[in-house]
Each structure stands twice: as C-alpha cells, then as structure tokens.
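Hello again, I could really use a second opinion on something today. I've been staring at a protein lately and its backbone has me curious. Can you walk me through what the tokens say about the fold? Take your time with it, there's no hurry, and the full record follows here:
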Amino acid sequence: MTVAPHFQFQDQVLHAEQVSLVCLAETYGTPLFVYSRQALHDAWESYRVAAQGRDVLVCYGMKANSNLAVLNEFARLGTGFDIVSGGELARVIAAGGDPAKVVFSGVGKQTWEIEAALDAGIKCFNVESQSELVRIADIAARKKMVAPISLRVNPDVDACTHPYISTGLKDNKFGIAIDEAPEVYALAQTLPSLHIVGVDCHIGSQITEISPYLDALNKLLSLIQTLSEQGITLHHLDLGGGLGIRYTDETPATPTMLLTEVFKALDAQGLSHLQLVLEPGRSMVGNAGVLLTRIEYLKRNEAKNFAVVDAAMNDLIRPTLYEAWHDVEAVQPRAEGEALTYDIVGPICESGDWLAKDRTLALEEGDLLAVMSAGAYAFTMASQYNTRPRAAEIMVDGTQAHVIRPREELTSLFSSERLLP
C-alpha cells in the first residue's frame, strides 16, 4: 500500500506496523484511531535530512493532531511547536515541549493567552494585525517584560488548494498585507516592550507544489531588504507549513525538494545566516493514522448501496466539510462475494454524514474497514454530536499497542451539565 507504508497487509490482514488491526478492533472496539510511532519518526526524519545540517527549526503545527503522546514524541526528537491557542500552549507544556521553541500564530489571541505565552517564555508571537501588535505591547509593558514578535504577512499568493485551507490570499483573514508590513514593523520599532525577531507567512495547507512557496519567498525576501533599509534586523524567516500528503494519487513535493530551493534563494540574497522556521502539521502525521470502523448494516435502495458503519462525521469531518477523499480498505478483503459500489455512511442524523462515496468493495455486515490517512485533522476536529463518545486513540510501536486516549464514557459527556431547580 503506497499511501500509508506503515499500514500493510500481512497474511491477508491489514496491520499497523506488526499489529493486526483485527486484534486492535476486537480489544478496543470501534470506531478507533490507530497511529504508527515509526511513521512519526520517519516524517520527522524527512525534515531533518532536508535541513542539510543548517539552522532549521521545525515547529510542528499541532492543530493537526494534538494528543499528548504525539506531542511528546516530537518533543523528544527536538521539534518546536506552532500553536494557535492558549490551550495548545498548555498541551505543549504538559507533553514536555520546550516553550522557547514555540511560535504563537492565530488572528484572535486573547489577553489571557498572551499573558500565558509571555510567562512561559515562548520563542515569538506571529502577529496578525496592528491591533494585536499594540495589545501585545501593552500587556508586555504592564508585566514589565519584552515580547518577541514576528509579523505574519499575507503575500497574496494562491496556494492552489481547497479554499477553506487557503490562508495566503488578500481576501483571507490571516496576516498583515505585505505592502503594509513595513509600516507596522516601523511601529513595532517604537514600542520598547517589543523585540522584533522575524518575519512569517503561511499560505495554506495540503500544498503539493513548490512554486507557491517560492512565490511567497520572493516577496518575503523583498520585504526583508526593505526592512534592512529601515534598520530592522531579523533573526529568522518563518515560511510556515502546508506541505501536502498523498491521500490517493497525489505526488506532493518533499521537504528536501522544498528546502533545496529555499536555501538556494537565501544564499543568493546573502541571507544564509537567517534561521529558517517551518510549521508542518499534516505532513508529519497525516499518513501516520487510520480510523477503524465496523459495518453495522448494508442497505440498498433504488439509487444507492450504503455501508452503514459505526464511525461518523463526528469522528472524521473532513469528507463532508471539504469533500475530502480518504482511501477505504477492507481490513480482511474478501476473496469471494460480489464487489458493489457503496457510499460509506455513518449513523448521525445528517445527510452530510458520509466518510466515502462510490467505493467498489466486496462487503458483508460486520466487516472492518480502515479509513486511511486519518492522522491529521481527524480526532482534533472530532465532536460529541448526537451524544456520541469520541473514539479511543491507540499508538502502535512495533509489536506493542499503547492506549494514548481511552474511549470516552457515555456519562462523561453530560457529567458537568446541571438541571434547573
């Protein structure tokens, strides 16, 4: 299986590393998220190799998958973290991450979040508006501290991805227009409670080509030259994240392909001294996980065949939110039986509750299915809609399986609610 090399068939049964997915489903039930520890290591290694020994800080975009075990694994490997909330900062600290390697992005940072980040000693704030810049300066001054800041600039570059995950166009909510950045940097220069450390941009997610990155980089290099003329010296350039993964037949660019071209551009401009910061998320975890689900019913009507499974849009919302494709594999493919075209749907009371459409499979009720490439933006976007407990998460390490988050108990879903007198 080329999409997820750490999930392969052994003796006609799909395995995570050396562990049978059938055994995991029988032991822990379904729906069930299963991750490969080795896949995390291999994804990290692809960035380490791409760095070519240069000063590159990989800040994992933890909104993709924020389980503490995943964060701790990356922290052990030396990553930093890209966060977008005070809650994510708390997770980094709980997982043993180094706050000094944390960059704080996001357009709506609240006062308590800024205070917590200052107290923790993060690497820098990626500032997304002039109003935010002033608020950070005021809070830092009140706390008698100096806040390290970088401006997240919007380069108006089309990442050629889904519009919901495109972030670098001028009509997106993110960042400061690149033409306005010199003026905002000049303001930051006048505020003694701020320390300018870098420049940042992030143009989107699931990007499969290098050209959008290089378009954005060229604009950033021009901005850096302008800032130098203003007497502003930067310490790092943050090119964001967004490298795509293979969900089906994509051929996404690799970290080495990207960084080779980035280093060439920096060297040509005499900027090889700048630390390069990256914020990969999906490419670190996307193909490290699958969602296991069991078929409850096979249903046929005049127009469609349906495989009704026990997973639903509350477990994996990407298909209905983005019309995203996830491969679906029978965990024990049937050698006999007629293959029919099915929509794989869940039990939630919404027509949008589907995981895959028009998949040709030979199925029977009770069969296990694996929804592939479910390591990113799956559990982190899961909900308890229809009062459905969120699935358990399992980390496989060779022949061992570790529960890294147990299945929620039904009563815990409403234990904090109160009846009226």
The CA atoms of residues 28 and 191 lie 55 Å apart. Residues 211-229 form the longest helix (19 residues).
